[in-house]
Amino acid sequence: MKSNKTFYFGLTMLGTIVLAAIFAPLITRFDPIEQDLMTTLSSPNATHWLGTDAFGRDVFSRIIFGARIDLTIGILAVLLPFIVGVTLGLVTGWFGGRFDSFIMRIVDTVIAFPFYVLAIALVFIFGPGVKSMIVAISLVGWVAYCRIVRANVLVAKAQDYVHAATLTGLPTTRILRKHLLPNVISQAIVFSMSDIVLSILAIVSLGYLGLGVAVPTPEWGSMIQEGQPYLLQQWWIATIPGFMVVIVGFSLSLIGDGLVARLER
Amino acid sequence: MSTPLIRVEDLSVEIKTGRGLLKAIRGVSFEVGAGDSIGIVGESGSGKSITLKAILGLLPNNAQVTAGKIFIKGVDASTLNKKARRALISETAGMVFQDAIAALNPVISVGAQIAEVPRFRLGQSKSEARATALKLMQQVGISDGEERFDLYPHQLSGGLRQRIAIAIALSSNPQVLFCDEPTTALDVTIQAQVLRLLLELRRDSGLGLVFVTHDLAVVNEICDSIKVMYAGKFVEIGGVDDTFNRPTHPYTYSLLKAAPDPEAVVSRLFTIGGEAPNLTLPVLGCPFAPRCFTAVAECGTSEPELRAVENSQSACFNSHEHKSWRAAEQKSGAL
Amino acid sequence: MSYFTYVGKRLIQLLPVLFGISVFVFTIVHLIPGEPADVLLGQNATPARVAILNHKLGIDRPIVIQYLNFVWDAMHFSLGTSFYNKESVASLIIARLPATAMLLSGGVILSILIALPLSILAASKRGAWRDQIVRAVPIVGLGMPQVWVGIMLILLFGLKFPLFPVSGFGDTFTQHLRSVFLPSLSIAILLSPILIRSLRASMLEILDSDFILTARAKGISQTRITIVHVLRNAIIASVTVLGVNIAYLVGSTVIVERIFVIPGSGSLMIDAIARRDYPIVQGVTLFFAIVVVAVNLITDLVHAALDPRVALK
């Protein structure tokens, strides 16, 4: 009951932000990139709802256009590792053997690296930018899905319904897809909710470090970095983009918890 | 007659569950005197473990005593504060749990766990407490106590673990041992050893036993009197010989019939047809009526109270007919 | 199995991971588009000079030999020299180590100071309002960006109420301590929700277990039950959770050092990236990975020493 309410609350909050991002040009009449050096660092007022930054750009407009970038990359950077990780988890868990040990050693290696250090090193290799970020986060991210699914497959493998399916002589791919996958994927789906948060956090962090989206493009992380020098007088420039991330993270947490309750039923 | 060690008057316990308030115990009264050996028998969910935990003040957070009184050595427990109550109860009764591996702290050596009460409650020095613990180990039949003292629970066999748990229960010098199915998790031969140990403790030091189980054979083996519990109430109370030979409640009768051989030390868990009632709902009539072979119309409308039948007490409207049950049951073809 | 056998087994398990780490770190340089010589020589790159430099860097040798050389050097703490100022990478990392180490230990200590009492508070009365509040902490906390927490702390305790320095590391030990307080706190604010989530669960499991009932039935005081029976088990749980999250923790120092301008190993890496100083990026990456592996090893060994059950498995 209660988790249902919070689930819809999370969904509503996230939905509002997503809609605002999609219809950003209709909501704000300011171009997020256009500079107006006559009105820099103005306080929130009727025209500029959240004031302007050091280049006179409308902060509100940059935040909702920034949502486009952060949410899109955040979701893309989860999609790829989800598919790769779930597939590898299924295969390694089912077949075991040398391939399994090989993949598990790679998993151990990836886990040994601090996430941000590895992501930063990878972005360094591929050069800063959106594509590098997605690739870097994906290269690290598949590991979690692989482990979750593999662990579930190992448990499911011993269950009678799988034995029964194997005995009927169905092709292995069908057993994996039709019998195993639906039973092992729910935990991965729940994790993907918090993983989206993690990848948005990574994008924001990389953006802050100047390794993410190139500068004039509105992105929450680089907005924080640009706003930091004006923290004492114009605190809203740096803190509100971060607060947006908090809200997105909170909504996804609620959605994730709601999903757990639903899937357990 | 001296004051009983423990006297329970009309005890009721309710448990908050996801599906509502569960009336786990609905008015239970009994006494435990020095040297008594009482068996409380019933299916799981009948409220027997909760009864023990309520007396010892070990109820989980979601459970609450809603009515009744518990007297420990004549003192009303509800008049004591938490600390005084805990002190009084622990010098009166010790508890042995079903699963020793869960009942022992995994990261503290077994010797230290036995020595904890002597050291920290009875104020003994470290070496005194160790000596006390070794003596307790000796008492529960662990001869090489010195060697086992520093071992951890997982390093011991199931039988030894249960002996350690009994030693812990004895460490506060109680006069009664509450045993919550202490042999269910053990192998057949180990079960027999643990039961023998409990019998010896009773014989040698006059230790009282309150033994909760669903194993009738165990009750037959070590108890003098039996209380049969069903749906949070005692439905039959009597001496072990009387009850085993002449059950005066149809539930007891069915239990005994389902048990393969009441003389055997170990028996299978009994099963009888039907299901125990859902105690989150109000109880209308006799809770056993839906499963009873001798139920009459009256059983569906009012709940029978305990009343004397020969040497026993039974909560059944038809208890006076108990001699003809064998025939009645065969005729009805129930079960 | 004795404790020493366990240690041996655990050390052998490390080998494939160390191999994987070394391969990846070695590969970093080879994956980067463009030749190191181009970066080093810039405008002065003539084919002859490139060839000489490549020979000096060892790039003209077979890749396996290069790898073996790299591993051999790394085992002798020789991680090459910085392109930028020709200093030895190893000594640069060591010079930056104290700041990072203080930051990390500060983060861990503050996290435990926040998480342990809160978890005990929550678990000791399941479902009560204080439990509800503590349970909400991870839901909000896990979605907070490190940079945001950092600048909020700067804003509150550095600027509005100037209690702590907001950047730098200071010169004396006391200054160091004051300087790493806010950065450590910002790490702790993000780490403690993770700790609380697992600790609360394991505390509940401990409090629900029969051995606590045994202790209560014995008549032991509540204080002693909490300290001896609950806390010891809970600390074992915290060590494990910390070990699992050490990679996350080390990674966040990179960002925190940047926010608070602390001259640690993480900011060394970020600066090196801006200068395309490969040996430093490579060296710091290797260093951090080794730190994580070492900490994981240590937590496992501590866990095995604290929990008599582990070594037996």
From TrEMBL, chain A:
It holds the Pfam family OppC_N. It is a multi-pass membrane protein. Keywords: Cell membrane, Membrane, Transmembrane, Transmembrane helix, Transport. Residues 67-256 form the ABC transmembrane type-1 domain. It is found in: Cell membrane. The chain crosses the membrane at residues 7-28, 71-95, 102-126, 132-149, 196-215, 235-255. GO terms for cellular component: plasma membrane. One of its GO terms (biological process) is transmembrane transport. This is Unannotated protein. It comes from freshwater metagenome.
From TrEMBL, chain B:
It is a peripheral membrane protein. Signal peptide: none annotated. It is found in: Cell membrane. GO terms for cellular component: plasma membrane. Its main location: membrane. CDD domains: ABC_NikE_OppD_transporters. Residues 6-256 form the ABC transporter domain. SUPFAM superfamilies: P-loop containing nucleoside triphosphate hydrolases (SSF52540). GO terms for biological process: peptide transport. This is Unannotated protein.
UniProtKB/TrEMBL annotation, chain C:
Residues 97-299 form the ABC transmembrane type-1 domain. The keyword Transit peptide does not apply. InterPro entries: BPD_transp_1_N, MetI-like, MetI-like_sf. It is a multi-pass membrane protein. GO terms for biological process: transmembrane transport. It is found in: Cell membrane. GO terms for cellular component: plasma membrane. The chain crosses the membrane at residues 12-32, 101-124, 136-159, 179-196, 230-249, 286-306. Its main location: membrane. Keywords: Cell membrane, Membrane, Transmembrane, Transmembrane helix, Transport. The keyword Transmembrane helix applies. PANTHER family: DIPEPTIDE TRANSPORT SYSTEM PERMEASE PROTEIN DPPB-RELATED. This is Unannotated protein. It comes from freshwater metagenome.
